[in-house]
Amino acid sequence: MTDDDFAGRANAAEMLKDSDRLFKAIVTTSQEWIWSIDIAGKHIFSNPAVEKILGRRPEEITGSAWHQMVHPEDVAKVKDALSKSMAQRTGWRNLVLRWRHKDGTFRWLESNAVAVLDDAGRVIGFHGSDRDITDRTRSEEDLQSNEARFRLMFQNAPMPYQSLDEEGRFIDVNQAFLDTLGYRREELIGKYFGDILHPDWVDHFKTNFPRFKAVGEVLGVEFEMVKKDGGTILVYFNGKIQRDVIGRFERTHCIFQDITERRRAEAGLKQAEARHAKMIANIGDVIVIIDQEGINRYKSPNIAKWFGWQPEELIGRPALENVHPDDIQRATDSLGQLFQAPNRTLTDQFRYRCKDGHYKWIEFTGTNLLHDPDIQGVLGNYHDITERKQAEVEREKLETQMRHSQKMESVGRLAGGVAHDFNNMLGVILGHTEMALEQVAPSQPVYDDLQEIGKAARRSADLTRQLLAFARKQTVAPKVLDLNRTVEGMLKMLRRLIGEEVELAWHPGARLWPVKVDTTQIDQILANLCVNARDAIDGAGTIVIGTENATVETTVSDEPDAPPPGDFVRLTVQDDGAGMDEATIEHLFEPFYTTKPIGQGTGLGLATVYGIVKQNGGFIRVQSRPGEGTTFSLHFPRHHEAANHSLPSEPPPRPASGRDTILLVEDEPSILHMITQILHRKGYRVLAAAGPDRALELARTHEGPIHLLMTDVVMPAMNGRELATQVRLLHPAIRCLFMSGYTADVIAKHGVLEEGVHFIQKPFSVNALALKVRACLETA
């Protein structure tokens, strides 16, 4: 054998040793429990992380079987996983089990493993790793502790603490310091710190203590200290200087950690590194090493599985080059903090680009091991948390929607509760007021008073309708419309509404898609928006109404009120008025929110607009800035049935009276009395019934035809629809008119909002009632 052969073998052996040291260092410092088991499920090897996770040292785990350590309810899962893996000669992925901690509690661990095969291809065991996924709320609760508790915990913490004066003499130490070194407190107070250092470190302290006082901070300094019994320990120091208000030195605050055992463990880890190389390649997280220049020096092979990159494509490249641009500053800051002190550990979250160009959310946990000759950089791991992030976004979105829905529901309950009784009372007031007006000459003083009563009652009825519109409980009769024709029909009224100083411009869109909406709701929307726009304009100005087709593409949005994809017709109302700030826009559609002076606005106009658009399956967008005007964009879903462009023929004038017989059913006495009077004055014969039973009795006993049944919808014992069915058995030719003061959702349950069914909403005017009765009687 030549000298070159010997030299080659020596180089190969040295390379193997380097590789061995690298993998041993990774296994030892890994935060995951890396293990090996035989085919019976008994542990052959565990890395030191098991003690942190389960409170048991590796030697305590060795020889124990899985089914002895997992929760009794998970034993079957263990046996099933082992059985299947043996049969299929594979491992398992993401197996979640509850493991018993040494203190008797259980920890949730996520396991990944690979089968170990002999030369004959038989399974002889498994290599794998477990990650602690126990709910992190414990640590969050700790972080939320009050300051008093934090101080108490710090004072009694196991971390050794010392305080020195300006001469380097002890002022204070905690119990952990005394326990670690074996001294009594009185033996240390006033003693020079250098007296308990190993002689090799005394000069180092004398030289660097003045620098420490000048700089004000020391991080990651290591000393060898002498215990009372003469033994020595290696410690890791962090310290800060406390100064008075004018910057003069007061005392030091230092903590240290005994890293003697850690150093021994690191040395032991180097002996097992090569054996664990396969485990590293198959653990669930990507392992990385980043040098002090921020360059990738190692990427575990499983990065190809999670992110599509091969390790060699990234090694030698900047570690942060694939971080999302919006996250790069935070990632840079985190890496910078890691490099500030040896052994510092830090966790952060950011988006990382896969090879195919899309991004995944990762949780990066790194430890500064620059001082470790086998690592010489930050050792970290990437954990894919994309699904968790998406779930958080979705949860926040749902919570926002739920809060808004609860607010809507509260207003809805208020409106629904008020609507019935309030509408009945308003109906009585309106009816009697209008009948009184018919009997009083306009010249009499009381005539104006009666008119004011009628106006107030109608305004009250409008207020109720606005509440119901916001809560989406307004009684509506949607029709397929061409919005252009509907808006054009309102322009004359809108110009009167906004006054002569404000110009109204109309920009209709071409080939507009049809929508299905109640025309009265479009009237409400335009009236409210144009009045608001007029009030926002100081003096002369312009309001522009426009329409156009709009398509919303399928998008992923973090907006809590993101629109669904599809075709919409957009109705815009734009003004050049005062505009609004973000704070105003945020509350714009809340009921009773107004920026107008007291007495000049109810705060229900825009809430009504919002409710109407939502009731019709649409959405609203608002653009506004102070001094730059406002644009409201209302989107209504496209309806695929063509709109009826023919104008309805003007009905021939007909008398709002007659000689027909009407069976009137109303369980509210005041309403029953009022409607009876109205119908009598219009010439009708009225059979008045205070409930369904009396109505059926009158229907059975009345001699002659009954032409119309006019009944309340919601009544005790029997609703209006059921009553109509019973009456038709006695009078097959009878026509029906339903009335109610309840909200649309209540009425709809009784089927009286269906097409072809005659219905009148309380409260109603005398003329509206008379015309409706006449229309029902004349229906073929």
Automatic annotation (TrEMBL):
<dbReference type="InterPro" id="IPR011006">
    <property type="entry name" value="CheY-like_superfamily"/>
</dbReference>
<dbReference type="Pfam" id="PF00072">
    <property type="entry name" value="Response_reg"/>
</dbReference>
<dbReference type="InterPro" id="IPR013655">
    <property type="entry name" value="PAS_fold_3"/>
</dbReference>
<keyword id="KW-0597">Phosphoprotein</keyword>
<feature type="domain" description="PAC">
    <location>
        <begin position="93"/>
        <end position="145"/>
    </location>
</feature>
<dbReference type="InterPro" id="IPR036097">
    <property type="entry name" value="HisK_dim/P_sf"/>
</dbReference>
<dbReference type="InterPro" id="IPR001789">
    <property type="entry name" value="Sig_transdc_resp-reg_receiver"/>
</dbReference>
<dbReference type="InterPro" id="IPR001610">
    <property type="entry name" value="PAC"/>
</dbReference>
<feature type="domain" description="PAS">
    <location>
        <begin position="19"/>
        <end position="89"/>
    </location>
</feature>
<keyword id="KW-0808">Transferase</keyword>
<dbReference type="InterPro" id="IPR000700">
    <property type="entry name" value="PAS-assoc_C"/>
</dbReference>
<dbReference type="Pfam" id="PF08447">
    <property type="entry name" value="PAS_3"/>
</dbReference>
<dbReference type="GO" id="GO:0000155">
    <property type="term" value="F:phosphorelay sensor kinase activity"/>
</dbReference>
<feature type="domain" description="PAS">
    <location>
        <begin position="146"/>
        <end position="200"/>
    </location>
</feature>
<dbReference type="InterPro" id="IPR004358">
    <property type="entry name" value="Sig_transdc_His_kin-like_C"/>
</dbReference>
<dbReference type="Pfam" id="PF13426">
    <property type="entry name" value="PAS_9"/>
</dbReference>
<dbReference type="InterPro" id="IPR003594">
    <property type="entry name" value="HATPase_dom"/>
</dbReference>
<feature type="domain" description="PAC">
    <location>
        <begin position="346"/>
        <end position="397"/>
    </location>
</feature>
<dbReference type="InterPro" id="IPR035965">
    <property type="entry name" value="PAS-like_dom_sf"/>
</dbReference>
<dbReference type="InterPro" id="IPR052162">
    <property type="entry name" value="Sensor_kinase/Photoreceptor"/>
</dbReference>
<dbReference type="InterPro" id="IPR036890">
    <property type="entry name" value="HATPase_C_sf"/>
</dbReference>
<dbReference type="InterPro" id="IPR000014">
    <property type="entry name" value="PAS"/>
</dbReference>
<dbReference type="InterPro" id="IPR003661">
    <property type="entry name" value="HisK_dim/P_dom"/>
</dbReference>
<feature type="modified residue" description="4-aspartylphosphate">
    <location>
        <position position="712"/>
    </location>
</feature>
<protein>
    <recommendedName>
        <fullName>histidine kinase</fullName>
        <ecNumber>2.7.13.3</ecNumber>
    </recommendedName>
</protein>
<feature type="domain" description="Histidine kinase">
    <location>
        <begin position="417"/>
        <end position="640"/>
    </location>
</feature>
<keyword id="KW-0418">Kinase</keyword>
<dbReference type="Pfam" id="PF02518">
    <property type="entry name" value="HATPase_c"/>
</dbReference>
<dbReference type="InterPro" id="IPR005467">
    <property type="entry name" value="His_kinase_dom"/>
</dbReference>
<feature type="domain" description="PAC">
    <location>
        <begin position="219"/>
        <end position="271"/>
    </location>
</feature>
<feature type="domain" description="Response regulatory">
    <location>
        <begin position="661"/>
        <end position="777"/>
    </location>
</feature>
<feature type="domain" description="PAS">
    <location>
        <begin position="272"/>
        <end position="342"/>
    </location>
</feature>
